[in-house]
Amino acid sequence: MSRLILFNKPFGVLPQFTDTGIGGSSRPTLSDYIDIPDVYPAGRLDLDSEGLMLLTDDGRLQARISDPRFKMSKTYLVQVEGNVSDEALANLRTGLHLKDGMTLPAHAEAIADPDVWPRDPPIRFRKSVPDSWMKLTIYEGRNRQVRRMTAAIGFPTLRLVRWAIGDWNVENLEQGKWREVAGPA
Question: What pTM did the predictor assign?
Fold first, then answer.
């Protein structure tokens, strides 16, 4: 039976079990939170992003989750600089041209401030620049794709929380905590 772990990764945690960084500085890694042998991340989540990571001991499941050809949905709650416009959301829904080519159409909607944990450290706050939130679902996983997409529509990302991958999500999962769930049939 395959193991499948849902982990709510905090901001600033490396999405791997060891830190191979330069200069001997030690940054927090998955091993600071998860002490289960032989499980590996199914995909990555940038150091400066938070939220759901899936880990498994099943190589086929790992590939099914992380390989872009399977087009597994990934849903993000994204805080951006500025008040996101309907036109910007429409551009996300039709696909954008980035340096590495066109993105697939995304599901994009403006949302009210979500009820998520506070970030440590908090994002910078500027009185003269408003911010807003959107919910964005993509079906591919290019390097820093969501951040590049929001920048391309003129709304730089301030905070990025991966809320769901496929049917799995971080609802009721505290930041820095994990739980084991049944894998797909």
Answer: 0.93
| 100 noted as active-site residue | no
β-pair type (4-9, 50-56): antiparallel
Count of domains observed in the chain: 1
Q: How far apart are CA 155 and CA 10, in angstroms?
A: 23
Distance of alpha carbon 59 from alpha carbon 63, whole angstroms: 6
CA distances (Å), origin 102, targets 63, 66, 110: 23, 19, 22
Across the range 8-17, mean pLDDT stands at: 94
Amino acid at 109: E
What are the tens digits of pLDDT across the range 54-89? 999 998 989 888 877 777 899 999 999 999 999 999
Catalytic residue among 19, 32, 35, 46: 46
Question: What DSSP state is assigned to residue 45?
Answer: -
**Is 59 inside a domain boundary?**
yes
Range of the domain at 109: 4-177
| Average pLDDT value over all residues in the chain | 91
The domain spanning residue 169 has which CATH number? Answer: 3.30.70.1560
Structural domain contains residue 183: no
**CA nearest to 154, candidates 137, 129, 123:** 129
